Amino acid sequence: MKIVGLSGSNVGSKTRTTMKYVSEKLTSQYPHVDWTFIDLADYTMQFSDGRNYLDYDGDTAYITKTIMEADAIIIGTPIFQASIPATLKNVFDLLPINALQDKIVSFFVTAGTSKHFLIPETQLKPILSYMKAQTVSTYVFIEEKDFMNKEIINDDIIFRLDALVEDTVMLTDTYKRIREEKESMYDF
């Protein structure tokens, strides 16, 4: 099972801090998972210009191909100006329409205020649905007050992140078995 963690911004520390926790949890609890972490702050990406994702090179090719090869994706994103970051939207724009078909996608959101709690519902979920992702039904919304000194200090957030990781792995296993059973019905 290949799971990709995608930190959807090239600035800030809260999303990276949370993804670090998710990464540690996933690798310690599920050593059989092939985990790849992509922090967009560490890459130089080209802007989408409508080409097929296979026609890009460098960091852009690595990111798109890694996502396309994944069985599941855990997205971490901050909210900037009441929206998802342009860097994350660019990743979606680089991929084909059905790029997330048969993939489990879960996510967490970091925001400076609770006033942004509907941004994932109005912006991120519609994009994921359009791209045919099977989304984990609940996501984790994390506010500024849940962090101190680049650490998560809210136990409820830790509990919900643990559940997000577990749900992602369980749903990925379940959907894989369902697809295998369905494919075994065909004689070719």
Structure notes:
This protein is an alpha/beta fold and 188 residues long. The protein has a single domain (2-184), classed as Rossmann fold (3-Layer(aba) Sandwich), CATH 3.40.50.360. 42% of the residues lie in helices and 20% in strands. It has 5 helices and 8 strands; from the N terminus they run E-H-E-H-E-H-E-H-E-E-E-E-H. The chain has helices at 14-29, 58-69, 86-94, 119-130, 155-184, and strands at 2-7, 34-39, 72-78, 104-111, 134-135, 140-143, 147-148, 151-152. The strands form 2 sheets. Strands 1, 2, 3, 4, 5 and 6 form a 6-stranded parallel sheet that branches. Strands 7-8 form a two-stranded antiparallel ribbon. Helix 1 (14-29) crosses helix 5. The longest helix has 30 residues, at 155-184. The protein is globular, with a radius of gyration of 16 Å.
Number of helices: 5
**Cα end-to-end separation:** 24 Å
Count of distinct strands: 8
CATH top level is Alpha Beta
Q: Which spans have pLDDT < 50 for at least 5 consecutive residues?
A: none
Task: Please compute the radius of gyration using only Cα atoms.
Answer: 16 Å
Structure classification: alpha/beta
- Sum up the overall morphology in one term: globular
What is the N-to-C order of secondary-structure elements (H for helix, E for strand)? EHEHEHEHEEEEH
Mean pLDDT score: 96
> Superfamily at the CATH H level?
Flavodoxin domain
CATH architecture: 3-Layer(aba) Sandwich
CATH topology: Rossmann fold
Largest sheet: 6 strands, parallel
Beta-sheet strand percentage? 15-25%
Q: Helicity, in percent?
A: 40-55%
InterPro entries: Flavoprotein-like_sf, FMN_Rdtase-like_dom, NAD(P)H-dep_FMN_reductase
Protein name: FMN-dependent NADPH-azoreductase
Subunit structure: Homotetramer.
Keywords: Flavoprotein, FMN, Oxidoreductase
